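Following up on my earlier thread - several people asked me to post the actual chain instead of describing it. Fair enough. Here it is, all 375 residues.
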Amino acid sequence: MKKRSVNNISAEVLAAFLDGNATAQESKEIFGALAEDAELRELLHISQSVDAELGLIPQDCEFIPMTAMAATCKEENYCCLECEKYILRKLNVKFDEEKLLQNAIQNGWQKENGTALHNVGRHLEANGLIVARQYNASIEDIANALKENECVIVAVDGGELLGSRAEEIKEDCLIGQIPDHTVVVLSLGQNDRTITIYDPNSSNAEDTYPIEQFKDTWNDSKNYLVTITSNSMKTYTPNPIDLSDVELTEDLNDLREAIAENAHEIWAQNRQAEGWSYGPQRDDAKLLHPDMVPYSQLPEGEKEYDREMAMKTIKLLKKLGYDLIKREETELYKVLKQRILNSEEEFHCRKCGNVIYKHQVFCDKCGADLKMVWE
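Reply from S.P.:
Thanks for posting it. Predicted structure:
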């Protein structure tokens, strides 16, 4: 059976990397490839799925579909772009449509198959508007934003939102936990029983839906809400992703200190490059800072800040469906490597037909939630 090669990374180098035996240069090449190659990322991701299948690693947190593609059911996949153009017009912000699309492609916001949820609103930011993003939002959050005259974009399951209209407009929409579409919320009806939206898929200027139908389709994006305003005086309310359901294994807890220390080293290196040095008291004019010392010399409070940032970064990766795995020479990983390098079994995304791997959480092409494939 022929061994695979991914992104010019040979099977032998990949196996050495999984073993922890790759050279510094080989590791550098793999890390560079990981940033660009979704298939290679999935090959590495599958390892924890095997562990989970064997009961070695718990999978007990609810994933956030931040990288899911908010794409229209139409071929162009420009629903996000159309929503942002709608808001620019509403706020009387002048723009060049052709340049808007060029910028979207050049910056990686607009992919062939849509726009990732975390990039919704990038055009608006680029045009000087203030954009805030939030998961696990509520109808009350939408109501408050509208009351403050803010514009609102939400990510929904396009097929589920259309319901019976899907067949009427003959769109190829798949219903079932896929946050594949964005719409602009225009208003809420009396007692929040209905919601009126601008939908790029619709030929109508606006469409009104029962609030319960909207909630069902909005839930599929974990209630992703993007608010937009031109009011620079608006009070900023941070809304970090809730990580309380993420539990880390002991080896990841141990990793926290190493990440915290390295984060401090990076901060100090950047400060030093700007001309800062140690001083017992912070002096911005003289570029002196009391934290320009080795990590071991930091006050415990500063260490705790770095540790918290490190811990929440690790938890966020897990919340987004990624895994950090320590490679050791065990029988399990030997079996895993053979599965990765020799597997000819293929699974396909039910939405776009893309080849996926067993236990993959989201399709790396269209962003579809794949739980329905395995259930």
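Confidence is low (pLDDT under 50) at residues 1-6, 50-58, 164-176. That should answer part of your original question.
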